[in-house]
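Something for you to look into today, if you have time. Just paste the record in under my message, thanks.
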Amino acid sequence: MLDILYRCGQATAAEIHAGMQDPPSYSAVRALLRVLEEKGHIRHREKNLRYVYLPVVPREKASRSAVAHLLDTFFDGSAEQAVATLLDVSGSKLSDEDFERLSALIEKARKEGR
């Protein structure tokens, strides 16, 4: 759901439901939107008697939080294990330029002492 909101900027529950692959029921989508709003991830405004939902947290901050949670949940906090898995899964799809950019990012992180 959040991916749809970040991609569109804003959307109604019906638009979110329509944009989901293999969506749950419409009422389940509305319930999930209510939970996301209660947790402070999204907000709504009324437009033409409908709720239009918008993300509250900037996409970059949300992605950092999600990656940190992913690292802790599946990789015991190890960035090395996560990167190794990403390369295993998508390494054959990366171009030489992609590998060069990744190498440059690794070298920059090494120099900055991260």
The chain has a mean pLDDT of 92.
